[in-house]
Every structure is written in C-alpha cells, then in structure tokens.
Design goal:
The chain has a two-stranded antiparallel sheet. It has a two-stranded antiparallel sheet with strand order 3-4. With 155 residues, it is an alpha+beta fold. It starts with a helix and ends in an 8-residue tail after the last helix.
Amino acid sequence: MTKLITRTFLLISALFSFSSMAADDAISTGIFNDLAIDGYDSVAYFTVNKPVEGSDKFELTWRDATWRFSSQENLELFKQAPTKYAPQYGAYCAWAMSGGKTAGVDPEVWHIENGKLYLNYNKSVQQEWFANMENDIVSADKFYPEITNVKKYQD
C-alpha cells in the first residue's frame, strides 16, 4: 500500500511539473472562451480614451484569440496594425508579467504609456505597477517572450 501511495504521489508530482513548464498562450483569454480582454475593444482605449465592450458583429481572430470591436472602423484599424492596438503582454496583467508570472486583468483598469496599452489585475495592483512602472516595463518586456508562446508568431 505504501508503494502505491508513493507511486501515485510521484505521478501526480510529475504531471504538475510538466504542466508548469508549458508556456502560457501568447494572449490571455477566458477560461471557457477564446475572447481577448473579456470581449472589450482594444482600439477604443486609444480612440475614445475609455474601455468599451466589443460586439460579436465585429470580430477578428489574431494570435489564436478572438478580438471584439465596437465598430467596423475599429476592427479595420486593428487589422492594419494589431501590435499597435493590442495590449502589451498579450492582455496579461503588466505588473504580474514584470515578476515573471501571468494573471488575468480587469478591462476597466488600464493605462496608455508611450503609445502602448497596459492592463492590470485590479486598481490596487495598478498602483503597485505605477510605483515602479519604468523598471516593471523593462522586466515584463523580458519575461513575456520567456513565459508565453508568443515567439511562435512572427508578425
């Protein structure tokens, strides 16, 4: 019985080890869907300076995620320059990424810095990120390609 318990424990440990070594997807999506930013329009942060929910009438697949937009015009803008309008770090929390981790975001907690969109988990986390934003961006820029599969996309 002890051998069975030991073997079971080793098997479970191995499975968790292998899954933790797998890279996260390049784009953060929902658990039960493939929507980026919970369906919010990433272009709207730039054009109307606020979060706006997208519509399933204006969808596009980019980097294996579904992106929604509030208008055909925003969808076209994204098509022309997706890396300009997509949130940094694949819509993962910028502060978490700076620590080499991935975390979801609240689409209502955002900031544009030097023409780039950054999202955070919540307002409290965003305050932490603001406190050391310049260094956090450098760190997150380094970690994003290391802990996600973004390298497979050659835009």
